[in-house]
């Protein structure tokens, strides 16, 4: 076994670390979050570095980057903030999915617009009544010959309110039986008549922002269908593992930065005549946390390796996501305790970290859903 | 909340409390059921009006001596009142700091003149109080306070900075732990001064907290003044006075807050039912743990009360109660967010938090103030278990 990164990967990591230091250090990410800002320099910078085309094959205009390289980027961006990491991951995944299943025209669009950072994609899957049970979605797309007529409502469409964004919308085009059938993926221009986007005010993650999207008699041309009609469940699943693994990279970066920040504070802050970090109760808690972060990191790297080999990694991806998100939440909670009053003030980065962390075990597949998947892989069907 | 039998001798009193609350907890007050907490400034004006309503009804300072305007009742009546109060869901009392901390401290250690001067105005909700203990360099290590006070004729002159003063923006007076002997270190040479806030030398600034409120404040003293006789206890004995207050903060004041957790628990079960979370085995387990924890809090409190009523020194459970309650309340908040799922992330415009969100975010401070969990564990280790003191690093 070889745990070393290649020289190229080390260089990529160093570049990403420098990018965060220059463009989006945690204090700036916090400001963007508080101001609900859309940081052009962030998206443009990531595009200039070629990150939006990195995982695509060289013949498709990419660099043939592996899942591990995507994790490395997500990890470094996550050190700024998890939301910053999602500014990358949230655009990358629907681009990869569309390219894989899309028509030639759609591939050209991805290559010329999305891979270059000129345009973004945002996913609309969840609905007010369907979160973890995604296949129960009800937004209807009626076949009207040369177009679909879409009616319904989406929730938690993250990034869907940003400019220059197309919404990759999962809709029902066929019957509900079998459960995962009858679903299709459409690329929808949010400026189309009949669409209303409402920003959802949330506790955190205000940079990318999340939205409700209302569809009322929205005309979507047939050529905007991605992949086969009624078979979008497998379209969605095709990048699910990769998404879980890269997201875990974001959790890891955020957790590690949270630990680094509390560690620094515990070394500087004096009480009872010594740095508080020298009290065993805090030192051991932080030692445990570093062990947890490394465990999550190894799970994520293993899943990335399996993906790169073209091997199945449903179980390993779920383990990485579960461990990564839970560790991130624990890190933020410990950070609040170590930084104490300083952390409780909104002037601190730690308060921002904590706000961001709360939803980690819920979004991108809840911890319960991950455990179901892992149990199923062990022959234990829980429902 | 469960019905509790406190015995025949207090049945009439309980009925009196119940009847009064039923008649007075109406209108705007009833609309604010369950609102507020020891460090939660939500609906401040309504709660202040409610405190005045309580004052008019003679329900503040139940156990305080009659000569200062209290009711002179016993501990059992106080407990019955708190229990019925929590049961009714009445808003958390805005004047909690003076009623729960400063008042008992004055009654125990204040001069006769101080009692005459301050206690009736606390009971009339005419003067609000804030605590000036923590400093930027003195939190858990409170003995490191550096705020100085020097005598200048018949006045103390204060210079320094305090932090985390709860409801400082509303306070008319502060009780401030200061170093009055400039050559002293640690626990010696400290005094507890009572300082009016309405003067040029006192500047109070809000700290915006994670819970989106400004109930915590920083206090800056620049040649602030107070009368020489406004020292609680003896000059140089401020540590003893402060520890007496912290003992109260870690003990008696837990009761109303913890009884309020029972209401939170009921609401959490209701939420779990609505969200279909009762079929999730992990949520079921966590809900059971949470339910048991609030029952244990109640049992622990009642045990302490029973021991006090029997004139016995409370057992080890009184020392573990703060750590247990704060950590379990925090867990309960996280569980609520898990059960609520993504919807728990939605806030109203302008970072408007709902009751559950606010409760979770405020609970993060509960393991820090009034003695951080780490300090509590040291106290339990050393005082209850008789373990050696926390070792110094080699």
Protein architecture, described:
The complex is a heterodimer of chains A (about 375) and B (about 400). With about 375 residues, chain A is of the alpha+beta class. Chain A folds into three domains: about 5-120, Butyryl-Coa Dehydrogenase, subunit A, domain 1; about 120-230, Butyryl-CoA Dehydrogenase, subunit A, domain 2 (Beta Barrel), CATH 2.40.110.10; about 235-375, Butyryl-CoA Dehydrogenase, subunit A, domain 3, CATH 1.20.140.10. Helices cover about 50% and strands about 15% of the residues of chain A. Chain A contains twelve helices and ten strands. Chain A has helices spanning about 5-25, 25-35, 40-50, 65-80, 80-100, 105-115, 230-235, 240-270, 280-310, 315-345, 350-355, 365-375; strands at about 120-125, 140-145, 145-160, 165-170, 185-190, 195-200, 210-220, 225, 270, 275. Chain A has a four-stranded mixed β-sheet. A four-stranded antiparallel β-sheet of chain A has the order 2-3-7-6, with no helix packed on it. Chain B has three domains: about 10-95, Butyryl-Coa Dehydrogenase, subunit A, domain 1 (Orthogonal Bundle), CATH 1.10.540.10; about 130-235, Butyryl-CoA Dehydrogenase, subunit A, domain 2 (Beta Barrel), CATH 2.40.110.10; about 250-385, Butyryl-CoA Dehydrogenase, subunit A, domain 3 (Up-down Bundle), CATH 1.20.140. Chain B is built from twelve helices and eight strands. In chain B, the strands form two sheets. A four-stranded mixed β-sheet of chain B has the order 1-4-5-8. In chain B, strands 2-3-7-6 form a four-stranded antiparallel β-sheet, with no helix packed on it. The model of chain B has no long low-confidence stretch (mean pLDDT about 90). Classes of the chains: A alpha+beta (about 375), B alpha+beta (about 400). The interface of A and B includes residues 271 and 344 of A.
């Amino acid at each position: 076994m070889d745990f070393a990164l290649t020289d190229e990967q080390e260089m990529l990591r160093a570049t990403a670390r420098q990018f965060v230091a220059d463009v989006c250090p945690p204090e700036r990410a916090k400001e963007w979050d508080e101001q609900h800002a859309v940081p052009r320099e962030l998206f443009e910078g990531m595009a200039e570095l070629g990150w939006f085309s990195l995982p695509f094959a060289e013949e498709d205009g990419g660099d043939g980057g592996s899942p591990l390289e995507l994790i490395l980027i997500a990890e470094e961006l996550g050190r700024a903030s998890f939301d910053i990491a999602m500014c990358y991951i949230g655009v990358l995944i629907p681009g990869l999915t569309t390219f894989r299943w899309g028509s030639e025209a759609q591939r050209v669009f991805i290559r010329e617009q999305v891979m270059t950072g000129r345009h973004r994609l945002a996913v609309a899957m969840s609905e007010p009544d369907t979160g973890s049970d995604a296949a129960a979605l009800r937004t209807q797309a009626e076949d009207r010959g040369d177009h679909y007529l879409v009616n319904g409502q989406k929730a938690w469409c993250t990034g869907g309110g940003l400019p220059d964004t197309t919404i990759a919308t999962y809709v029902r085009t066929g019957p509900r039986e079998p459960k995962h059938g009858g679903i299709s993926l459409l690329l929808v221009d949010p400026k189309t008549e009949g669409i209303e986007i409402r920003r959802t005010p949330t506790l955190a993650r205000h940079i990318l922002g999340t939205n409700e999207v209302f569809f009322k008699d929205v005309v979507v041309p047939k050529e905007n269908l991605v992949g086969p009609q009624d078979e979008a469940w497998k379209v969605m699943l095709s990048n699910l593992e990769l998404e879980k693994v890269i997201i875990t990279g974001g959790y890891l970066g955020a957790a590690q930065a949270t630990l680094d920040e509390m560690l620094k504070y515990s070394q500087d802050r004096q009480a009872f005549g010594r740095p508080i970090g020298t009290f065993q109760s805090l030192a051991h808690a932080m030692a445990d946390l570093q062990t947890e972060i490394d465990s999550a990191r190894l799970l994520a790297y293993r899943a990335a390796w399996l993906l790169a080999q073209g091997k199945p990694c449903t179980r390993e991806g779920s383990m990485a996501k579960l461990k990564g998100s839970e560790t991130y939440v624990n890190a933020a909670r410990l950070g609040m305790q170590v930084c104490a009053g300083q952390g409780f003030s909104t002037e601190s980065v730690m308060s921002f970290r904590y706000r961001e962390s709360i939803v980690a075990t819920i979004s991108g597949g809840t911890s319960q859903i991950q455990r179901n998947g892992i149990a199923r892989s062990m022959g234990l069907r829980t429902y | 909340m469960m019905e509790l039998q406190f015995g025949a001798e207090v049945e009439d009193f309980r009925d009196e409390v119940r009847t009064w609350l039923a008649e007075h907890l109406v209108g705007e007050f009833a609309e604010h059921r369950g609102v507020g907490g020891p460090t939660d400034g939500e609906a401040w004006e309504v709660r202040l009006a409610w405190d005045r309503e309580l004052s008019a009804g003679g329900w503040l300072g139940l156990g305080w001596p009659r000569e200062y305007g209290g009711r002179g009742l016993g501990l059992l009546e106080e407990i019955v009142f708190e229990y019925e109060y929590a049961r009714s869901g009445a808003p958390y009392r805005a004047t909690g700091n003076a009623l729960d901390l400063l008042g008992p401290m004055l009654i125990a250690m204040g001069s006769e003149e101080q009692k005459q001067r301050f206690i009736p105005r606390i009971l009339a909700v005419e003067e609000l109080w804030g605590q000036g203990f923590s400093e930027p360099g003195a939190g858990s290590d409170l003995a490191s306070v550096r705020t100085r006070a020097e005598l200048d004729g018949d006045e103390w002159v204060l210079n320094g900075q305090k932090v985390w003063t709860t409801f400082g923006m509303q306070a008319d007076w502060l009780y401030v732990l200061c170093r009055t002997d400039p050559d002293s270190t640690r626990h010696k040479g400290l005094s507890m001064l009572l300082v009016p806030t309405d003067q040029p030398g006192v500047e109070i600034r809000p700290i915006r907290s994670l819970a989106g409120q400004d109930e915590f404040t920083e206090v800056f003293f620049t040649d602030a003044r107070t009368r020489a006789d406004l020292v609680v206890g003896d000059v140089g004995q401020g540590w003893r006075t402060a520890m007496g207050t912290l003992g109260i903060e870690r003990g008696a004041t837990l009761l109303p807050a913890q009884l309020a957790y029972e209401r939170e628990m009921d609401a959490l079960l209701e939420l779990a039912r609505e969200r279909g979370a009762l079929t999730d085995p992990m949520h079921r387990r966590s809900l059971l743990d949470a339910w048991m924890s609030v029952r244990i809090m109640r049992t622990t409190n009642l045990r302490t009360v029973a021991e006090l009523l029997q004139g016995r020194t409370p057992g080890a459970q009184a020392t573990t109660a703060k750590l247990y309650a704060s950590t379990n309340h925090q867990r309960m908040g996280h569980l609520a967010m898990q059960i609520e799922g993504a919807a728990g992330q939605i806030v109203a415009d302008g970072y408007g938090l709902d009751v559950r969100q606010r409760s979770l975010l405020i609970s993060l401070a509960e393991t820090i103030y009034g003695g951080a969990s780490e300090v509590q564990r040291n106290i339990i280790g050393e005082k209850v278990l008789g373990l050696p003191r926390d070792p110094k690093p080699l």
